[in-house]
Design a protein that fits this description.
The complex is a heterodimer of chains A (about 200) and B (about 260).
Chain A lengths: L4 H20 L2 E2 L8 E2 L3 H11 L1 H19 L4 H24 L2 H35 L3 H11 L6 H37 L2
Antiparallel strand pairs in A: 1-2
Helix pairs in contact in A: 1-2, 1-3, 2-3, 2-4, 2-7, 3-4, 4-5, 5-7
Chain B lengths: L14 H4 L2 H14 L6 H18 L3 H25 L5 E5 L2 E4 H27 L2 H11 L10 H31 L9 H32 L18 H20 L2
Helix pairs in contact in B: 2-5, 2-9, 3-5, 4-5, 6-7, 7-8
The chains are: A mainly alpha (about 200), B mainly alpha (about 260).
Subcellular location (chain A): Cell membrane
Pfam families (chain A): ECF_trnsprt (PF12822)
Organism (chain A): Pullulanibacillus pueri
Chain lengths: ~200, ~260
């Protein structure tokens, strides 16, 4: 796609608008605490990152979360977590994709990105996100665990909560995003290249 | 899904409407942190009174504020119930099985819910009395110092306003595509998860294609009108900082020592 810098700017803006719309249709998974909602809003950011590089993808993640925060308000911990998770997935994914630019490298990149994202988010949840929720929302970690126990009985402490909920949640989210992004890119690519 | 109010702006002529978006942004941002200084009845009282004054000054009908609160109301209720039943301090009011309701728990629950409510009401008031474009302009202006660090503040603000402008358009587009694909036999709202995910693809492909096309048209239109970034760009609406803006910031600054003195 022939791109001037203005066209790139405008395209990134429109991809962010799509990402925002997708973020609105978030749904919780069975067997998981309700605050972990699957949303596929990383897809436009991945498409943007493939087209214009990882920085564009990160900008889309940032704009999407800003817009989401501006419309829902409250305390932006969820938005921050979403931004970090999406950015990690995109940086790893495009880093590997850009070396070969084949479908296979995209698949490998996104799978690796999913793994790294899931592990990093588990660590971040253990040390930052849960304690942050405890401070801002006023309900300590123990109560959040009790809440999670209602959804899944084998959760009994923060560590098991993360292993049984946060880690699989992020992996499922990453796999879903990968499973949709790749066929989407396969279908978009010929049209975008033809316009050059 | 289709009734998202993006830019909840309600036109009006109140003091809050006429304030500079920069002062409102700064005040709301500071208040989100200041609220955490409150820790007893007096300090929470001060903050609640301040919030009520802000609501009255905005002259926005309560219905609109409630609309802004709706998405977070459930979170606040859950937080209240959890805090009320799981905090064990003070006298017991009610004790049955594993239900313990204590005065301390009730107080804790009330405080935290009020804190959340105040933060949400403040941000809602900001979006109710300021147009999304004004918020973006104000943000661009406040973030100007970051330009020195080579952060593209202007481009970021531009992208934000374009995204805001096109969310309703793309929403309409999505609805149209969904109807078109439903007519072809695609099921979006029923069936097992795998089938629903498969149904997403015929929705996304046309949506992306149309977004790319729109971006191309818009970029061309902008270039044809001589857009060259923020160098030498003039504005239709200029931001004006007035006395009431300074006063608002003064109130916020004075609030900090008052709360520090009154807190227990």
């Amino acid at each position: 796609m022939r791109t001037t810098s203005l066209k790139k700017t405008v395209t990134i803006a429109l991809l962010s608008a799509i990402a925002f719309l997708i973020m609105y249709i978030a749904f919780p998974l069975p067997l998981m605490p309700t605050f972990l909602t699957i949303d596929l809003s990383d897809i436009p950011a991945i498409i943007g990152a493939i087209l214009f590089g990882p920085v564009a993808g990160i900008i889309i993640e940032a704009l999407k979360n800003l817009l989401h925060y501006a419309t829902t308000g409250g305390i932006p911990i969820g938005e921050l977590a979403n931004f970090v998770a999406g950015s990690v997935l995109i940086i790893t994914g495009t880093f590997i994709y850009r070396r070969r630019e084949t479908m296979r490298s995209l698949l490998i990149g996104l799978c690796l990105g999913t793994l790294i994202m899931a592990v990093l988010m588990s660590i971040a949840n253990y040390f930052v996100i849960y304690p942050a929720y405890a401070i801002f929302m006023g309900f300590p970690v123990e109560q959040q665990i009790q809440l999670a126990q209602a959804a899944n009985h084998s959760i009994h402490d923060l560590f098991s909560l993360i292993i049984l909920a946060v880690l699989p949640f992020n992996i499922i989210k990453g796999i879903l995003v990968t499973l949709i992004s790749i066929p989407l890119w396969v279908r978009l690519r010929p049209r975008l290249l033809r316009n050059s | 899904m289709m009734n998202i109010i993006i830019g909840q702006y309600v036109p009006g002529k109140s003091i809050l409407h006429h304030m500079d978006p920069r002062s409102k942004l700064l005040a709301v941002f500071a208040l989100i942190f200041i609220v955490f200084l409150a820790n007893n009845w007096v300090t929470y009282g001060v903050i609640v009174i301040l919030t009520l004054v802000a609501i009255v000054l905005s002259r926005v009908r309560l219905r609109f504020i409630y609309k802004g609160l709706k998405p977070i109301l459930l979170v606040i209720i859950i937080t209240f119930v959890l805090n009320a039943f799981f905090t064990k301090s003070g006298e017991a009011i009610f004790d049955y099985g594993w239900f313990h309701l204590t005065t301390g728990g009730l107080q804790q629950a009330a405080f935290i819910s009020v804190r959340l409510l105040v933060i949400v009401i403040m941000t809602t008031l900001l979006t109710l009395t300021t147009t999304p474009i004004d918020i973006t302009d104000g943000l661009e202006n406040l973030l100007r110092p970051f330009k020195k660090l080579r952060f593209p503040v202007h481009e970021f603000a531009l992208m934000m306003s374009i995204a805001l402008r096109f969310i309703p358009t793309l929403m309409e587009e999505t609805e149209k595509i969904m109807k078109a694909q439903t007519a072809r036999g695609v099921e979006f709202s029923s069936g097992p998860l795998t089938q629903r995910i498969k149904a997403i693809l015929p929705l996304l492909v046309p949506l992306f294609i149309s977004a790319f096309k729109r971006a191309e048209d818009l970029a061309m239109a902008m270039e044809a009108r001589g857009y060259r970034g923020d160098i030498g760009r003039t504005k239709l609406r200029l931001l004006k900082w007035g006395l009431k803006d300074s006063l608002l910031l003064l109130v916020v600054i004075v609030l900090i020592p008052v709360l520090v003195l009154l807190r227990g």
